[in-house]
Design a protein that fits this description.
- The protein is mainly alpha-helical.
- It has one domain (about 10-160).
- Helix content is about 75%, strand content about 0%.
- It has five helices and two strands.
- It has helices at about 15-35, 50-60, 65-90, 90-120, 125-165; strands at about 5, 10.
- It has a two-stranded antiparallel sheet with strand order 1-2.
- The radius of gyration is 20 Å and the shape is elongated.
- The two termini are about 25 Å apart.
- Keywords: Membrane, Transmembrane, Transmembrane helix.
- Pfam families: DUF4728.
């Protein structure tokens, strides 16, 4: 993969990485608030593994909300770790975010496809909703992958800097 030199054609990859981490924290906090503030009948969780009665029992006990909140708290922790890694220029502190980022991208793709296909196959006519979910989800996935590429490029730059030493000559001048 070719490394990116700039984020959004203007900012450095370092700045783009910081913006990505701050956005991750803000979106995680907003999602936690949204999940716990919105009434239960507006948000439904289903496992697709167990039967519908078991899913309803889990939702009544707020188990899906608790699991989602714990996952988002870990996302906040990893984004905070990314901010510290950028400030201290430590590549190994960036690695959890890089790994989690690509796993989340795969999960997002599966989720968008599953949700839109479910709406397309629904007996009621939800073609418009399914199309909006598909197009919007794929757009969001592309944006997310671009921001992941920015962070990954910065990770590679910091890792290379650590390997050759911070104050040594550039490799082409040896």
């Amino acid at each position: 993969m070719k490394r990116l030199q700039k984020c959004c054609c203007a900012a450095s990859t370092r700045t783009g990485t910081l913006i990505t981490a701050v956005l991750g924290i803000i979106l995680s906090i907003a999602t936690i608030v949204l999940v716990w503030v919105v009434k239960r009948h507006r948000i439904t969780f289903s496992t697709f593994i167990f039967d519908e009665d078991f899913d309803r029992k889990l939702s009544d006990l707020d188990i899906p909300r608790i699991i989602l909140t714990i996952n988002l708290c870990f996302t906040i922790l990893i984004c905070s770790l990314l901010i510290v890694a950028v400030q201290k220029r430590r590549s190994w502190l960036m690695l959890p975010w890089v790994v989690l980022g690509i796993v989340l991208a795969i999960g997002l793709l599966i989720s968008v496809l599953h949700t839109s296909i479910t709406y397309y196959l629904d007996k009621e006519d939800h073609v418009l909703i399914a199309t909006i979910i598909l197009i919007g989800g794929l757009f969001y996935l592309c944006l997310y992958l671009y921001l992941w590429a920015v962070v990954f490029s910065h990770y590679l730059d910091v890792r290379d800097e650590e390997e050759r030493g911070r104050y040594r000559k550039a490799p082409y001048r040896r």
